[in-house]
Amino acid sequence: MTGNPWQDDRGNKDRSITKSSGAGGSGDPVRHRTMGSGAPRVTDGPFLIGDNMTGGYGSGADILHGCTLAVDPGQIAVIVGPNGAGKSTAMKAVFGMLNVRSGAVRLEGEDITHLTPQDRVAKGMAFVPQTHNIFTSMTVEENLEMGAFLRRDDIGKTIAQVYDLFPILGDKRRQPAGELSGGQRQQVAVGRALMTKPRVLMLDEPTAGVSPIVMDELFDRIIEVARTGISILMVEQNARQALEIADRGYVLVQGSNAFTGTGEELLSNPDVRASFLGG
Ligand SMILES: Nc1ncnc2c1ncn2[C@@H]1O[C@H](COP(=O)(O)OP(=O)(O)O)[C@@H](O)[C@H]1O
Ligand SMILES: [Mg+2]
To answer: Whose Cα sits closest to atom 5 in ligand 1?
Structure first.
């Protein structure tokens, strides 16, 4: 442990989740640049990339056809696209839950295509799936403790920081998570993922089923997490609002990248607007 509450022997060493103090731990052997910061980049390519991924479920037909997703430290990358486009499948592929038949997944330049999801967690990746992402019969705090199952160090500080980020969870720490509102459950799911002190947080539709106000609030918290240097790779059905906070955006159609650009570029692209943003 370095004394940093969120990070120990990996990744961004110089910040807690809510209190940003600039990019790049000075002792890091590999440094990456967040957009526009101008810090030196030692490795080639993005921090995390699912590069040209093709694959499907079991021996079934391919769902992904050369799909590419990437994100850098402190960035928010957003994946949008119609239902059934393969957004969740692409997230599973990046997290190692899918057989990638061709293409690769690389983290800090290292090929992790064949690592198990658990090994990816150990490398600093966290994934909040679209459904069944909390234990409803366990309390809020037990959910957070479950999130830290790989850790052998003191998790109390991290729990306190999750409560800092999501104060309502501190108030409801002793309540079964299943009794919480939809938005609060999503906070539990995100909090649980943060318990591993990840470098990359992958979120599949974190605002599904919540009101616009709760969505805005959750997006604000996600921005806060990204400001600490954690990469966010996120699928969103609220495409317009999500692209507004995105450094990078991907429009996925039938398992392929239909459009890629900054959030701003996609929001102002007439084709994207007409087909995916309701004009
Ligand atoms: N576990 C699974 N086994 C087989 N096919 C699946 C599975 N999950 C999703 N699919 C199929 O993969 C395609 C893409 O689904 P999905 O990735 O969930 O799309 P999205 O998240 O963009 O709505 C769909 O045709 C869906 O039926
Ligand atoms: Mg999905």
So the answer is: 57
pTM (2 d.p.): 0.86
Number of domains in the chain: 1
The angle at the Cα of 214, spanning 209 to 215, to the nearest 5 degrees, equals 70
Ligand nearest to the CA of 92: 1
Q: Which residues surround ligand 2, an ion (CB under 5 A)?
A: 87-88, 130
Per-residue pLDDT tens digits for 172-217: 999 999 999 999 999 999 999 999 999 999 999 999 989 999 999 9
Pocket of ligand 1 (CB under 6 A): 57, 60, 63, 81, 83-89
- The verdict on residue 136 lying in a domain is no
Instruction: Write the CATH number for 51.
Output: 3.40.50.300
Question: Cβ of 27: how many Cβ atoms within 10 Å?
Answer: 9
Over 67-131, what HEC string results?
EEEEECCCCEEEEECCCCCCHHHHHHHHHCCCEEEEEEEEECCEECCCCCHHHHHHCCEEEECCC
